[in-house]
Amino acid sequence: METKFVGDDNAWEGSFYHPDNAFNEATFVDQAGKLLGLSEALGLRGVRYAVSSVGGADFFRSVLLQHFPEQMRTGALAVYHVDMTGMP
Fold first, then answer.
1. DSSP secondary structure string, 14-77?
2. How do the pLDDT tens digits run along the chain, 88 residues long?
3. Count of structural domains within the chain
């Protein structure tokens, strides 16, 4: 499980991970590839991203689908919105 705190839905546009800001797609994709490799090497069921906003989850899902379509299709790689209301 990899978590990405991108603020709530109201703060997503100001997040470091938003594509209009400092987001580095190559670094993100490289990390996902490494996590997938580790998961496979350890015999795990895959990699899950928990993202704190709906917009952020949709964005990460679209990026990962472009680079890892087979893993997204099979469920070896997945992105979920996890409401983090009340988290510091």
1. GSTTSTTTT--HHHHHHHHHHHHHHHHHTT---EEEEESSHHHHHHHHHHHHHH-HHHHHHTSE
2. 888 888 888 888 888 888 889 899 999 999 999 999 999 999 999 999 999 999 999 999 999 999 999 999 999 999 999 987 655 5
3. 1
